[in-house]
Write a structure and sequence with these properties.
Strand content: 25-35%
Shape: globular
Number of strands: 25
CATH architecture of the largest domain: 3-Layer(bba) Sandwich
CATH superfamily of the largest domain: FAD/NAD(P)-binding domain
Number of helices: 9
Helix content: 10-25%
Radius of gyration: 22 Å
Distance between the termini: 49 Å
Bound molecules: flavin-adenine dinucleotide
Number of domains: 3
C-alpha cells in the first residue's frame, strides 16, 4: 500500500493519520478536510470556548513532521473504487479512511438559527451571548444543556424548549428527569413537551401555535452522519457508513471511523454509531490496523461525558433492555449515580453525576462482565468495585 487518503480533518481524521505513522506506514498520506482549519477538538466548543476561557482547541499534532499532505477547505464529493473526487481534484488511493463526522440538524423556518458544530459556529454564537439577551435553546440534550449553561453564565435570559417530557430523554430515558431541577436552579425557563414548529424572525413558533420570543435561537436537536457525498458510490450506508467489527466498509480498501461510522459491535451483537469523542479517539487505531492487513477488532464499551450546570455527567455502557437502580438520591441534590443491571446481574451501564470514581469502576465492571451483588450497588457508601 503506497497511498492512503483520509477524508475528514476532525479528531478521527487526525488520529487516523497518527495511527498510520505509528503502525509504521511509510507511504504518502493525504488528508482532505472541508473546514479551513487544522484539526481541532469539539467538546470544548460548548464549554470553554462559549464560556470565553479559550479561543482555540487545535489538536496538538504535528502534521508536517508526519509528512501529511493536508488539504484544508477541500471537500470530498464522490467516491469510486480507488479514486476520491474532491473539490480540489481527483485523488487516487490504495487505502481510504472515511472520517467525515456528522452535521447538525436544522429546523424549518425563516428565522436565524445557530447550530454548534464548528469553531466558527462557537465564536459566532459566543459573540451573541451578552447580558440580557433572550436566548432560546431548542433541545434539552447534551449540547442544548451545555449551551444553556454557558448562555446563563453570560447573563442571558434563557428558555429551553424540549419536545420530550424531560431532558436527555433519548440518551438516558427516565433518568434524564432528574436533571429538571438544574434548569430552575440556574434561573432558566424549561418548557417540556413543547415541540417547535418553526424558527421565525424574533423567536420560535411551537406546535400548539404559541410563540417564544428570542433574540438568539440555538438549535440542538441532534446530528446526521455526513455521508451524502457517498451516495451512488455503492458503499453500504445505513445510518452512517456500515462497517464490520474491523471497521472495514463494503468497499475494498476503505475503512470508516468516528461519528460517521456504524460499526458491528461484537460485545452488543448489533450495529452501533456513537457520536462521542472517545470513539473518534479510539477507533482509528483499529481501522488503520485493518487497512494495513491486521485483524484488529473494535469493541469498546461506549463512553462520554458532559459538563452542565456545574455538574460532571459521565456515562459508560449501553442500558437498552437493562433495569435501573439508583445509587444516591438525586432529589437530595447530592452527587448520584444511576446503574443499569443486565440479566444475570452484570452491570450494563452507569451514569454518574459528580461521582467520577463510580464511572471509572463501573466502566471496568462493564468491560469485565462479572456478576455483581445488586443489593450493594444501591448503597453509595460501598465502592462499586466491591459490589
Ligand atoms: P468531526 O469532528 O465532525 O469531524 C469530521 C470532519 O470532516 C469535519 O471537519 C467536517 O467538516 C469534515 N467533513 C465532512 N464532510 C466532508 C467531506 N465531504 N469532505 C471532507 N471533509 C468533510 N463528545 C463527548 O464525548 N463529550 C463531550 O462533552 C462532547 N462535547 C461536544 C460538544 C460539541 C459542541 C460538539 C459539536 C461535539 C461534542 N462531542 C462530545 C462529540 C465529539 O466532539 C464528536 O464525537 C467528535 O468530534 C467526532 O469526531 P469525528 O472526527 O468523527 O467527526
Amino acid at each position: 500500500m503506497n497511498r492512503v487518503v483520509v477524508v475528514g480533518g476532525g479528531l478521527a481524521g487526525v488520529r487516523s493519520v497518527e495511527a498510520l505513522r505509528a503502525h509504521g506506514f511509510g507511504g504518502e498520506i493525504t488528508m482532505v478536510g472541508a473546514e479551513p482549519h487544522r484539526p481541532y477538538d469539539r467538546p470544548p466548543l460548548s464549554k470553554a470556548v462559549l464560556l470565553g476561557t479559550t479561543d482555540s482547541t487545535i489538536v496538538d499534532s504535528d502534521l508536517d513532521a508526519m509528512e501529511v499532505d493536508f488539504r484544508p477547505g477541500a471537500a470530498a464529493t464522490k467516491l469510486r473504487e480507488g479514486v476520491l473526487e474532491t473539490t480540489g481534484g481527483e485523488l487516487p488511493y490504495d487505502g481510504l479512511v472515511i472520517a467525515t463526522g456528522a452535521a447538525p440538524i436544522r429546523l424549518p423556518g425563516d428565522g436565524p438559527q445557530h447550530v454548534l458544530r464548528t469553531i466558527d459556529d462557537a465564536l459566532e454564537l459566543r459573540a451573541r451571548l451578552t447580558s440580557g439577551t433572550r436566548v432560546a435553546v431548542i433541545g434539552a440534550g447534551w449540547i442544548g444543556a451545555e449551551v444553556a449553561t454557558a448562555a446563563r453564565k453570560a447573563g442571558c435570559a434563557v428558555t429551553v424548549v424540549e419536545a420530550a417530557a424531560h431532558p436527555l430523554a433519548v440518551a438516558l430515558g427516565p433518568v434524564g428527569a432528574h436533571t429538571i431541577p438544574w434548569y430552575g436552579q440556574a434561573g432558566m425557563d424549561l418548557r417540556l413537551g413543547a415541540a417547535v414548529a418553526s424558527v421565525d424572525p424574533g423567536g420560535l413558533t411551537l406546535a400548539d401555535g404559541s410563540f417564544v420570543e428570542a433574540d438568539v435561537v440555538v438549535t440542538g436537536v441532534g446530528v446526521r452522519p455526513s455521508v451524502d457525498w457517498l451516495a451512488g458510490s455503492g458503499i453500504e450506508l445505513d445510518n452512517g457508513v456500515v462497517t464490520d467489527e474491523h471497521l472495514r466498509t463494503s468497499m475494498p480498501g476503505v475503512v470508516a471511523v468516528g461519528d460517521c461510522a456504524a460499526w458491528w459491535s461484537r460485545r452488543y451483537g448489533r450495529r452501533l454509531r456513537v457520536e462521542h469523542w472517545d470513539t473518534a479517539l479510539g477507533a482509528p487505531d483499529v481501522a488503520v490496523a485493518t487497512l494495513l492487513g491486521d485483524e484488529a477488532v473494535y469493541d469498546p464499551v461506549p463512553y462520554f461525558w458532559s459538563e452542565q450546570f456545574g455538574h460532571m455527567v459521565q456515562y459508560a455502557g449501553d442500558h437498552s433492555g437493562a433495569r435501573l437502580l439508583m445509587r444516591g438520591d438525586p432529589d437530595a441534590g447530592a452527587r448520584w449515580t444511576a446503574c443499569w443491571i443486565a440479566e444475570g446481574d452484570t452491570l450494563a451501564a452507569v451514569l454518574s453525576v459528580d461521582r467520577p470514581r463510580d464511572l471509572l469502576q463501573g466502566r471496568r465492571l462493564i468491560e469485565g462482565g462479572r456478576r455483581i451483588d445488586v443489593e450493594k450497588v444501591s448503597d453509595p457508601a460501598i465502592a462499586l468495585r466491591d459490589c
